[in-house]
Structures are given as C-alpha cells and as structure tokens.
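Molecular record:
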Amino acid sequence: MAEIQAISGVRSDTEILERAKARLKAQLGQDIFASWFERMKIDEVSKGLVRLSVPTAFLKTWINSHYSDILLAIFAEEVPGTLKVDIAVRSAIRSQAAAAARDLALAASAATERKTASASLPSPANQSAFDPSTRERAQNGAQGPHSGNGFGSPLDNRYVFDTFVEGASNRVALAAAKAIAENGPQSVRFNPLFVHANVGLGKTHLLQAIANAATRRADQPRVVYLTAEYFMWRFATAIRDNQALDFKENLRGIDILIIDDMQFLQGKSIQQEFCHLLNALIDSARQVIVAADRPAFELESLDARVRSRLAGGVAIEMAAPDFDMRKEILTTRTAALKLEDPTFAIDDKVVDTIARRVIGSGRDLEGAFNQIAFRHAVGQPLSADHLDDLLNSLTRTNGEKRIRIEDILKFVSRHYNISRTDILSARRTRTIVRPRQIAMYLAKTMTPRSLPEIGRRFGGRDHTTVLHAVRKIEGERAKDEKLGEELDLIRRMIEE
C-alpha cells in the first residue's frame, strides 16, 4: 500500500500529519507546539474536510479559540481542497477527576505562551508602575505579597492608587475602585464591578491597587486577587488532590474577590463552578470585581449565565488616554528615569510629538519611551527620522487595535442602507448577502478575531461560511477595481 501511495503521489495520513506538525513547530516554536499540538492525531481526511483529534476537551477548546486559522491554512496547503478542519476529543478510560486535572493544568502553559509572544516588551522588573502602561500581568513577577494569605496570585506593591495616572478615560473606573477599596461593605452597590478595556490601559494596575488598598484597611477584609488562568490552575490542582470542597469553601469565605483577564476562563465545568461562586458571593453581599478586554456581551466563550451575572452589575469601560493624559504618562516616566539617571532628558517638543501621534494604549507610549531611553543608555540618541519611523509603526498598530466588529457592522449597514439585524439574520437575498460577506471580509482583515469568533458574531454562523465570504470578496476585489475602491472607502470610514 505504501508503494502504491508513493507511486501515485498520494500521501498517507501519517505523512500529512508529520508535515503539518513540522510546519506548526517552525511557525509557532517548540514550546507552544509541545503544549498544544504534540498529541494531535489525524482521524480522517475526506473531500474538503480534515478531522483531527486531541486527548482532552481543554486542548480542543484552546486550539479552536487560538489556532483554527493557522491549522486551516496549513492543511489547505498539505491537502489541496480542504475547506474545514474539525477537532474532536479522543475517548479515554480514565476518571473524570484525572481528566480534568490533566486538561486544566495546561492553562499554565497559556501564560507562558503569551509571555513568549510579548518578549519584546519590557519586563515588569524594568518598568515603572507610574502609569497604566506597565505590564498587565505582573503577577508572574510580582514583588509584593500574595493576596488571600497565599491563596491568590501575588500582588505587585508598585500597583497602588498613588502611581495610577488619572485622566478623563479612566476617572469613573478609578472612582469606583477607590470606593470599593476604601468604603468596605458600604460599596456593595457596585456589585459586581466589571471593568473592560483594551490591552495596555491599566486594568491590572487598577485591580491590584484595589487589593493592595483593601488589605491595609482597619477591618482587614479577606481579599483574593486571581487571574482567570490561575483560577483554572488552582481548580485543577484541587480536583487532582481531592480537595475540591476545600477549594470552594476557601473562595466562598472571602470578602473581596478580584478576577483578572476573564476572557481566558475556559472549560464548561470551570465556568459552572465560577458561576456558582459568583452567585454565592454576591448573594451574601461580598464584593466581586472582574476585568476583561471586552464588554461582557462580547465574551462569547463564557457561559451565558456568567455573562448575564456580569452584565447585571456596574460595567465601566476604560478608554484610551487622551492627549493630556498621554503627556502626563510620558512626563511621569521621564521623572522616574531621571531619578536613576540625572543625565536623561526628553525635549518638550518630543514629548508633545509622541503624545500627539501615539493614540493607542499606554503600553505603546511605553514602547516609544523605552526606545528613547535605550538609545540614551547606549549613547546613541534616536534621530528625528528614526523617531518618525517608530511613531509611524506604532500609529499603524494602534489603528488596527481599535477596530471592533460592532464598528464594522455599523458602517457596512449604513453604507448599504440595511439594518444590523439584516446582516445577522438568516436572509439570503442578494441585497443582504453581499453586504454580509463584505462585513465578514472586513472583520477578518481589520480585527484579530478568528474565523469561529467572527462566525459567532455574525448570527452564530460556521467558520467555513466566514472563510467562503473572505475568499469570495478577496477574489472579486482582485478583478473588480470598483469593488476595491468601495472597500477602501468603507475601511477609511471605519478607521476614522
């Protein structure tokens, strides 16, 4: 059989899998490959479809959420004509507890992966926490004590209210955070408090400031700060060690629960347990604070009951800093560095230029500032041309980050004089289908969302429908100059 396959040029499933794995390893790196793809197998290759299997439900969920586009692109090249890649969970004879522990322990690898992906950013130890641009997940290298007497994630003692730069974009969130931290039980009217913002805008700084301030109160409340990933890891450990009941009792006995990076909470059983915990704390007048990178209704991977509970409290968005706040962040960073190196200085015109052009997150401001600081440290000041190139790069990145699928739906529906409901509906008339496909194409090219995520946002459609729309519009754009101009017009309206 192998000889016949070799003669006919048809690869076996094993050969296809090995080639795909080699490409994944080359594209993503050995650590990420070993964490998520090492145990992946091919179950079936049929016309237009590749069926893969992994040993755990957590692996399936994680791969579908983060790597579905990469897998589809790789298998489409290895098996021409592939339109869909399905992932199933292989059956295994093992206890539910052992399975859950093995699945969920992989959550710790996710933090390592994101840390590797952002290795070009300054580490928390080398950053000042004077502004919201400091490293969002400082719990991995925190310098302060653990919250909850060692139960929660460690707190960074630099993340306090005094070092948080206040501005119009975060003033409401800061006021609510201080009320919770300082007023104790009187602040339960802000319950749960849900803070959402794009990356780099200071969510983690604000949440840890609440924890640091609350632990210093005279009534000494029991405060637990956890990232969603750390919550998953602790839950997995408790199941493995047959201590699930103790884990639940410990959490339900606290006064203030703070959960960061809620968008990373994965797994049906874990989300159900979190929902029970949320209900128990709120019903007993205990304070809950949650942060995520998007509004609750956009957290599609979360159980609907959890989303509903979060939406039922106080939701506050932290927006990008305005010009005055950006100047304040840069000025504060300059003053902090000047304490370490008295020779360091930045011209006021340069500060104004950076603040005017870098309009995204505080982390982008930090990136521009660190470039200047590094050049000063090695005796090679950044020239005006190099500064301009740097700012152009940051400006392009910021433009991509700000685009949301909601923005695309709004402008596409306005341009084609149809409603947003029409685009999300099941109607298949040409006057609806065409704008829907264009909106899907723009969502894929202008946002970081995956095909399955886009499909869910477009009325719960399958990711293959999105892929078909993207390929169709791409093909027509290459042939139709008028369509290209129309797409560019809509894109400019969205970006502006």
Q: What stands out?
A: The CA atoms of residues 137 and 469 lie 37 Å apart. Residues 1-9, 92-146 have pLDDT under 50 and may be disordered. The radius of gyration is 25 Å. DSSP finds 23 helices and eight strands in the chain.
